[in-house]
């Protein structure tokens, strides 16, 4: 299979309605006109095209297992050779409490996010904003970024702060600090000094994070240089967001299929078959066109804005009225320098990364879980997950109370308090805890979130 041309075919079909109509009508002619030679059966491409339209790829799985296996092997080889991917998905963290918190968040989201989205999503630990606002002004922006207001330039003072912050996260998180992004509600190419910040990041973490930018065509040579430097440091991946069909066609003329084979196009133009998550501006503008139970947030950890000198602790969630940007905000604070940031992060760890359920002042099951108990068995079901347990009478009673929620004082009175944490009830609580099935959001905590 010619992977470069196969990928370009997908991009054409997903993003260009003109090519899509022509391929559906006359596939061989469409491929010839686009100068594409994927070197696979046309019937396979037609099945893939049908899956793109319907979001149902089961017929492809049944009819073309060999072709799919070849694609999977190719993708797996790319993934395993990418240091950034390893930092995101492997057990490489140096902070056990933070890692356990991230794993609980991941498992909790397994119950509420679409499996296809969940299985392919990355999960970074830190995101750095090197500016305030974004020049893209995309009408679908998942984070509703304001207009570009300020860039964090690479001055001697800012360089000292930047390297101090990087060193702090490296000390706090170990290798997991390399699972990071140097943008969030920003466009990285807005910052003229971006490459200098990337080189510092690589020096301290030995990882060159991927990029997502709205502007690959603003300066094509800069895009090429940045991608080339990334390849030299083991990171071939660039993500380029496309918002207009004409822009997509210009991209194809500027960058060949071979040159762009290890880049990702995020096809956000109106003609695309892609659908946005129901977050940010897309939630406001086109709620019926959004893809349900997905989120654009890939961060379970810390969001740091270097201009504002602020830090937030966030994790992905299904977008809703309370969390319109698809992430849950656990805490936020400001800092003056790396030393103060260290104190802030220490406070967040003590408050939000407890070592066990016994630290929770309030115990409850999140409302996404439905509970049924019969014949010594309990079944907890969400939209995408079912968990079953054999339970004693006391454990069944505890599950019923957890569904309604109970304070530590009520737990002490009804279930033996601390003794229960060392008996059979502890085993059930520990299982729920590690599975992300006990609520840890701020309403479960005493005190004010503003303190942090």
Give an account of the 3D structure.
With 452 residues, this protein is of the alpha/beta class. Helices cover 44% and strands 14% of the residues. It contains 18 helices and 15 strands. Strands 4-1-8-9-10 form a 5-stranded mixed β-sheet. A 3-stranded parallel β-sheet has the order 5-6-7. The radius of gyration is 24 Å and the shape is globular. The chain starts with a helix and ends in an 18-residue tail after the last helix. The C terminus is likely disordered. It comes from Victivallis vadensis. This is Radical SAM family RiPP maturation amino acid epimerase.
Spell out the key features of this protein.
TIM Barrel; three-stranded parallel beta sheet; globular; 3 domains; 452 residues; Radical SAM family RiPP maturation amino acid epimerase; five-stranded mixed beta sheet; Outer Surface Protein A, domain 3; alpha/beta; single chain
Number of domains: 3
CATH class designation of the largest domain: Alpha Beta
Read across the widest sheet, the strand sequence of neighbours is: 4-1-8-9-10
Average pLDDT level: 90
* Low-confidence spans: 443-452
From the 3D coordinates, which CATH architecture of the largest domain would you assign? Alpha-Beta Barrel
Q: Label the overall shape.
A: globular
């Amino acid at each position: 299979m010619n992977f470069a041309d196969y990928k370009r075919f997908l991009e054409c079909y997903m993003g260009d309605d003109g090519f899509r109509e022509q391929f559906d009508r006359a596939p061989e002619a469409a491929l010839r006109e686009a100068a594409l030679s994927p070197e696979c059966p046309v019937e396979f491409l037609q099945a893939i095209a049908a899956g793109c339209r319907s979001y149902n790829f089961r017929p492809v799985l049944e009819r073309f297992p060999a072709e799919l296996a070849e694609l999977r092997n190719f993708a797996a080889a790319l993934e395993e050779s990418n240091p950034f991917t390893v930092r995101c998905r492997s057990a490489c963290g140096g902070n056990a409490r933070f890692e356990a918190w991230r794993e609980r968040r991941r498992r909790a989201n397994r119950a509420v996010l679409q499996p296809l989205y969940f299985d392919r999503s990355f999960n970074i630990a830190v995101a750095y904003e090197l500016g305030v606002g974004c020049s893209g002004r995309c009408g679908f922006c998942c984070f509703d970024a304001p207009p570009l207001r300020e860039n964090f330039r690479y001055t001697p003072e800012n360089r000292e702060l930047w390297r101090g912050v990087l060193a702090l996260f490296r000390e706090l998180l170990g290798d997991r600090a390399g699972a990071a992004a140097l943008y969030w509600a920003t466009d990285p190419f807005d910052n003229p000094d971006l490459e200098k910040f990337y080189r510092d990041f690589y020096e301290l973490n030995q990882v060159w994070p991927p990029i997502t930018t709205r502007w690959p065509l603003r300066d094509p040579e800069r895009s090429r240089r940045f991608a080339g430097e990334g390849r030299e440091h083991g990171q071939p991946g660039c993500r380029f967001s496309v918002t207009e069909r004409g822009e997509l066609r210009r991209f194809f003329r500027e960058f060949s299929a071979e040159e762009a084979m290890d880049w990702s196009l995020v096809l956000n133009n109106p003609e695309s078959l892609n659908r946005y998550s129901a977050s940010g501006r897309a939630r406001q503008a086109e709620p019926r066109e959004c893809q349900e139970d997905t989120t654009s947030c890939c961060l379970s950890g810390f969001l740091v804005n270097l201009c504002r000198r602020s830090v937030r602790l966030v994790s992905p969630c299904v977008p809703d009225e309370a969390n319109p940007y698809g992430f849950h905000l656990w805490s936020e604070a400001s800092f003056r320098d790396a030393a103060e940031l260290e104190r802030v992060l220490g406070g967040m760890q003590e408050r939000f990364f407890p070592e066990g359920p016994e630290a929770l002042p309030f115990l409850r099951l999140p409302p996404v879980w439905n509970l049924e108990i019969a014949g010594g068995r309990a079944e907890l079901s969400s939209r995408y997950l079912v968990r079953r347990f054999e339970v004693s009478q006391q454990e069944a009673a505890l599950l019923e109370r957890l569904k309604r929620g109970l304070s530590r004082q009520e737990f002490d009175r009804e279930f033996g308090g601390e003794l229960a944490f060392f008996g059979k009830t502890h085993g059930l609580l520990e299982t729920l805890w590690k599975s992300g099935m006990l609520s840890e959001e701020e309403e479960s905590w005493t005190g004010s979130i503003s303190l942090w």
